[in-house]
Specification:
By secondary structure, this protein is mainly α. It folds into two domains: about 5-145, FAD/NAD(P)-binding domain (3-Layer(bba) Sandwich); about 160-200, no CATH class. Helix content is about 50%, strand content about 10%. Bound molecules: flavin-adenine dinucleotide (FAD). Flavin-adenine dinucleotide (FAD) binds near residues 2 and 5. Flavin-adenine dinucleotide binds near residues 4, 28 and 133.
């Protein structure tokens, strides 16, 4: 796991908690190398809003958190510990949240924390270095993808992008058009299963 931010800590936690004995090495470059926004060496340091958004069940943000809770989210356990009044939102004290998440991850017997910048793409690996990915690693990712620049999709965007990119990567443009044509000409029961397999 590369990157000990929100995503990297949650993913490391989820892998380590699966119960099949997998050991996870979590690489975090701070404090050896800092980013332009982080100020501490803590894992899961929040550099952004202290709100994890709505807790109202009619809202997509709440449903996402409800699913995460059912999956044993470490981030949400830490958020509950660090909770501050936030109206209808789950808001946290930044320092208390990072402390709680750091303590959980650092104490997990199956997670090994390695401090230092990763500059090449390890394999197998999950890259979770966020919008402030170091320059060397950004270069390695861009080279692997064959692109000149990378874009960061903020908080809400991946929900839309995942469905789109899955469609594209599974089938490509021509086949997507073919699948769309198939969908409109198949009976409703088969249409539903086509949609399900795209979303999976
Ligand atoms: C100034 C600022 C304000 C923001 N405000 C908001 C906001 O209000 N709302 C919102 O939803 N989002 C906001 N964002 C985006 C925000 O960063 C993400 O929502 C969230 O932090 C992403 O979590 P993450 O785990 O992907 O990345 P991060 O939490 O940034 O974690 C990535 C980790 O990877 C580490 N890392 C980077 N490169 C390497 C490397 N080569 N080797 C090892 N470790 C590395 C970093 O040190 C960091 O700890 C903001 C971002 C910035 C920079």
């Amino acid at each position: 796991m590369v990157g000990g931010g929100l995503a990297g800590c949650e993913a490391a936690w989820a892998l380590a908690e699966r119960g099949d004995g997998v050991t996870v090495t979590l690489h975090e470059m701070r404090p050896v190398r800092m980013t332009a926004a982080h100020q501490t060496d803590r894992l899961a340091e929040l550099v952004c809003s202290n709100s994890f958004k709505s807790e109202e069940p009619t809202n997509a943000h709440c449903l996402l958190k409800a699913e995460m809770r059912r999956l044993g989210s470490g981030v949400l356990e830490a958020a509950d510990e660090a909770r501050v009044p936030g109206g209808a939102a789950l808001a946290v004290d930044r320092a208390a949240f990072a402390r709680a998440m750091h303590a959980r991850v650092a104490a997990h017997p199956l997670i090994k924390l390695a401090r230092g910048e990763v500059t090449a793409l390890p394999s197998p690996a999950v890259i979770a270095t966020g919008p402030l990915t170091s320059e060397a690693l950004s270069g390695a990712i861009a080279a692997r993808l064959g692109v000149a620049a990378l874009a960061f999709f903020d908080a809400i965007a991946p929900i839309v992008s995942l469905i789109r990119s899955t469609r594209t990567s599974c089938s490509g443009r021509r086949a997507t058009a073919r699948a769309a044509a198939t969908t409109t000409s198949t009976p409703p029961s088969r249409r539903r299963s086509t949609t399900r397999s795209w979303q999976a």
